[in-house]
Structures are given as C-alpha cells and as structure tokens.
Amino acid sequence: MTPLERFDARWDLPDVSDGASPVFLLAAGWRSGSTLLQRLVCSSGEVLVWGEPYGRSGLIPGLARAALALRDDWPGSGHFAPEQLYQDLSKTWIANLYPPAEALKRSFKAQLDTLLGEPARQRGYPRFGLKEVRLHAVDARFLQWIYPQARFVFLVRNPWDAWASAKGASWFLRWPDRKVADALSFAKHWRWLMEGFAQWKESSAMLIRYEDLSAPGVDLKPLAQHLGVTALDPTVFQARPRGMSRPPLKLDGGEIATIAQVTAELATALDYRGPTPRSALAS
Questions:
Q1: Domain residue spans in the chain?
Q2: pTM score > 0.90 for this model?
C-alpha cells in the first residue's frame, strides 16, 4: 500500500475519480517518440491527449509534491475539528484548522479536471490524457491516486539516439533554472525517469520501446487493449509532422562514453548498447 493509499484508508476517503479513465503517456525524456505515440492514441477518436500542457509551469509535479507530504503522522486528527466546533469558532484554538481530507483530494482532482478533462469533453472526446517527457513515476503515482482507473504508457528510446536528435536545442527540465543542455544532463534525466518506470509492476502501465513501436508492421492491438480503446490507426505512421526539421546530430566520443556511463545497466537491460548507425537512424 502506498502512502497515498494509506492516507485514503486512514481518513476513509471515497474514490473521487467518478470512473474517469484518462491516459497518461510518459516518455523518458525528449525526442523519444512521445508525439508519435500521442498522435496514435488520438487516432482512436476516443481520447484527446494534450501535449506537455503548460510544461514549464510544473503543474503536476507541484501537485504531486504537495501530496507527498501526506503521511501516517501528518496531518493529525487535531487538524480536523468535529462539526459542532463550527458553531462558534471564536472560543477555541483554530490556528491549525484544516478543511477535511476529502476536500483536499477533491481539490487536486478539480484542477486536473478543469485543465484537462473539461476542454476535452467540450471538443467531443469522452476521455482525456496527456503526454509528457518530464514526469517521473512519483508523479504517475499521484495521478493514479486521483484516477485509479487511469492507464499509463511508459515510452523509452535508445538514449544515444534520443540525445542525437535533441542535441542543439534548448530544453527545460524546470523553468527557468534547470536546463538539459548536454549529454550528461540528458542521460541523468533519462536514467532518473527509467529507474522509476522500471519499478512499476502493476498492469495499469505498459512499457514500450520506441524502436518496437515504430517497427514496420507493429501489432497495435495490445496497446489498444491496454488503453481500452476500440482501435488505433496505423496510417499515423505514414505521416510524420515534425517539430524539428533537422536531422540528428553526430555524437562525439565523449558524449557516447558519458551516456554509456550514466545509463549503464538500465540501457543494457533494454538492449541499448550504443548509438544506432547513422545510416539507419530516424529522428
């Protein structure tokens, strides 16, 4: 049982999700094929997957960090008043008078619903979701707490190839003070995300390699079944609108060695052992 699940049990909180089953596509960093996956899920016509919505604002990590404070020993019963106390608050100690625990959980859901769910429904989509390249499994745990029926896809790409495609652009891990601007910071971000993804064992998440997703003739039925959609349109692979038009850049020996050292066993476990030959590399 996670700390958030224990929080629910401690305060006897109901499921606030209203049966919603959003789709969260979390990629291990930039240039990992997350937009291709996003377009593929949108092709179902059943889910509007937003693309890194207000990513620089850090909205979901901020909510997740707030929820991380909820522990077995905090807040305590003394933070919540019995209903009769509200008849005259002026005669008691109310310096730490908290709204009910259920109100806190519902407030988290209200922000997510307002930002992501309502605009999707207004546009005719019964379900909503998002794709991101910054969110960790800790953030996914928070999202699962709010939406227990959520479906997750963790997407990973060869870290050397992803960096070759990302190299030369400006990427913010946290705006405005944390940039991912070199092979070392990129590889550390890849490792940090993959360490979290690899520890997720529940069936609510599916781990996919970009190389398998983009392979000719890939069978999309398992992904569609995992997401609970009728079908995914394979013609999405035929049109590749690009946010970056330039080809991947060449990596120098230092970058190759740095990524190898940082990603180590995680990359090897995913059968990534170095950069793909440039003749076969797609951006």
A1: 3-75+97-275
A2: yes
